Amino acid sequence: MNALAKLTQLSPLSPKALSRALRTGTGDALDKRRGVLALSLTAAGSMGLISLYQMGVIKHLPEPPLPFLDADKVDASEEAYAYFSAPDGVLGFASYAATAVLAAIGGPDRARTMPWLPLLAAVKTGADAAQAARLTRDQWTEHRAFCSWCLLAAAATFATVPLVLPEARDALRRLRDG
Predict the structure, then answer these.
(1) Residues 105-122, buried b or exposed e (16+ Cβ, 10 A)?
(2) Which residues lie closer than 8 Å to 50 by C-beta, 6 or more apart?
(3) pLDDT tens readout for residues 91-132
(4) How far apart are CA 53 and CA 70, in angstroms?
(5) Nearest CA to 157 among 47, 72, 30?
(6) What does the pLDDT average to over 135-152?
(7) 3-class secondary-structure state, position 83
(8) Number of Cβ within a 10 Å radius of residue 160
(9) Nearest to residue 88, comparing CAs of 29, 32, 138, 156?
(10) CA angle 145, 138, 102 (to 5 degrees)
(11) pLDDT band at 10 (very low <50, low <70, confident <90, very high)
């Protein structure tokens, strides 16, 4: 392992052992982390598509032909460009990528070996869920329309919260009990 790899190695497992543990390991905590990863990548995919529209790569966001759905209206709104002089789809993509990284870091027993990670993941997903709820509410109150891609990302976000809580509780218990 080169010097940079050694400096950036967070897990007490060797890279070879970590590879095997993450790919073939079993257990409830690891299964839930895999779920968080899948949900985060689903939400990131939605944000990626929205980003393509917001940057003009595609000219229209496809929507199911249902009342109250208008992704173009929602995702082209002034609010969608209000933070950091960037489209909010790109910011959302980066945020969901960060959540995916938090789910992927560490071995199967990271609540014991790296307890700050499950706690950080719980705080991050809680903040993401609060933001998704606010944005969903704002779609209706500001535009009287919803973006189905945003709703998909919000649903995936809400689904991550119960997945991170057991590992965070375990990490907190281990920190408290020493």
Answers:
(1) bbbbbbbebbbebbbbbb
(2) 61, 71, 75, 87, 88, 89, 92, 147, 149, 150
(3) 999 999 999 999 999 999 999 999 999 999 999 999 999 999
(4) 13
(5) 47
(6) 96
(7) strand
(8) 29
(9) 138
(10) 110
(11) low
Task: Identify residue 99 by its one-letter amino acid code.
Answer: T
Token pair of 145 as six digits: 């329309």
pTM of the model: 0.90
pLDDT averaged over every residue in the chain: 93
Q: Tell me, what's the pLDDT at 7?
A: 41
Q: Is the pLDDT of residue 79 over 80?
A: yes
Instruction: Give me 67's structure tokens.
Output: 């009342």
Task: Collapse the DSSP code of 10 into the 3-class scheme (helix H, G, I; strand E, B; otherwise coil) and give the result.
Answer: coil
Question: Is 13 in contact with 21 (CB distance < 8 Å)?
Answer: yes
Q: Which of 135, 145, 164, 138 is nearest to 40 (CA)?
A: 164
